[in-house]
Amino acid sequence: MQKKRLNIAVLDRDTVGHDVPLAALEAVGEVTVYGLTPPELVEERLAGVDVAVINKIKLNETNLVGNDTLKLICLLATGYDNVDTKYCKERGIGVCNVAGYSTQSVAQMTVTMVLSLLSHLPVYQRFTASGDYSRQKMMNRIEPVFHEIAGKTWGIIGFGNIGRQVARVAEALGCRILVCKRTPVEGYTNVDVDTICREADIISVHTPLNDETRGLISAERIATMKKDAILVNVARGAVADEAALARAVLEGRLGGLGVDVYSTEPYGEDHPYSAIAALDNVCLTPHMAWGAYESRKRCVEEIGENIRSFMDGGRRNRVD
After folding, report:
1. What gap in Å lies between CA 257 and CA 314, rounded to an integer?
2. Is 287 a catalytic residue?
3. Whole-prediction pTM value?
4. Domain residues of the chain, as ranges?
C-alpha cells in the first residue's frame, strides 16, 4: 500500500537560501513554502500540517497548543533550543535536528576568521585597494605587525564534529592543541576552560547552548586571557558575556575577536558589539558560518531522510 503523502510546511525558507533545491522534501510530501514567518502567523500556517520544517522559529506551547495534526518538527539546524522538546514529547510530536551537516563549513569559517585576524588581512587589503600602496615609495608595507600561526597554542572549547575538524586544520598549520570536553579525548591535551583561557593564543568556541554553557566565557575568564589572544565564537551568542568581550576589545585587553553568533539575532544598535563592529581587530559576520552551499544542500537532504525514517517508524536524528 502506498504511504500517505504528508503535508509539509517550510516556515522560513529564506534562512536556507533559494538556491538550494527542496526536492528531498517534495519527494515525501506536499510542500508549502514561506520565505519567513512572523510569530503571529506561526499557529495559522501550521494548521493542518503534518511536518513543520523550521530554522530559527520558536515553537512551544504558545503556538502549538491548538494543533492536532502536527506529527514532526524538522530543524534546518543542529541546535534545537528554539523548540520546547519537553512539551513536544508530552504531545507526541517528534523533533529532529540535523547533526554534522555543517562541520566543514563552520570549521572553514573558524579558521578563516583566525587567519584574517592574526594576519590583519583587511587592513592590508584596504591599504592596497585605496591606492595608498601605489602612492607610497616603498615596495612593501609590514605594519601592523603580524605573526605566524605555527607554534601558537589553539584552545578548542567543545570537541564535537566541528571542534575536531578545527583541530585537524590547526594541527596542519603547526598549532599546539588544547581541548576542553566533558569526556577526555584520546590523543589530545585535555584541560579545563580556565586553563584554555589562560594559556591559549587562539580560542575557538564550539559548544551547544545549555544551562552549563550559558555565560561560559565570562568576564572573569576573559580577564585571564592573554592580551594578544584571539577569540572566535561560532557556537551560540549566549555562551559568552558579550558586553565583557566588547569591553575587553575596547580596552585593549584582547588581541582579536571573531563572532558569527549573537544572543539576539540580528543584534540591535544598542548591542555591545555595535561599538566595536568597525574595528580592525574585530570580525563580525551575520550567522553565516554554517551556510556554504554544500552544507545547506546537505541539510535539506538530511531532513528528507529524517522524514522518511519517521514515516517508516524510525527515530533518525530525533532529539525529543
Report:
1. 43
2. yes
3. 0.90
4. 6-101+293-311, 103-284
**Cell representation of residue 163:** 571542534
CA angle, residues 252, 257, 261, in degrees to nearest 5: 140
Q: What backbone torsions phi and psi does residue 249 show, to the nearest 5 degrees? A: -65, -50
Nearest to 230 by CA among 185, 280, 184, 272: 280
Spatial separation of the C-alpha atoms in residues 198 and 169, rounded to whole Å: 22
Look up residue 251 and give its three cell numbers: 580596552
186 catalytic? Reply is no
Per-residue model confidence (pLDDT) at position 1:
39
Which one is catalytic: 120, 253, 287, 308?
Answer: 287
Q: What's the CATH architecture for 103-284?
A: 3-Layer(aba) Sandwich (3.40)
Q: Are strands 282-284 and 202-205 parallel, antiparallel or unpaired?
A: unpaired
For the domain spanning 6-101+293-311, the CATH number is 3.40.50.720
Rounded CA-CA distance 89/37 in Å is 24
For the chain, residues with pLDDT lower than 70 are 1-3
Q: Which amino acid is at 270?
A: D
Catalytic annotation, pick one of 90, 171, 265, 294: 265
β-strand partners of 259: 233, 284
CA distance 137 to 131: 12
Q: Dihedral, CA atoms, 180, 183, 184, 190, nearest 10 degrees? A: 20
pLDDT at 288: 96
Q: Is 143 tagged catalytic?
A: no
CA proximity to 154, closest of 165, 139, 142, 146: 165
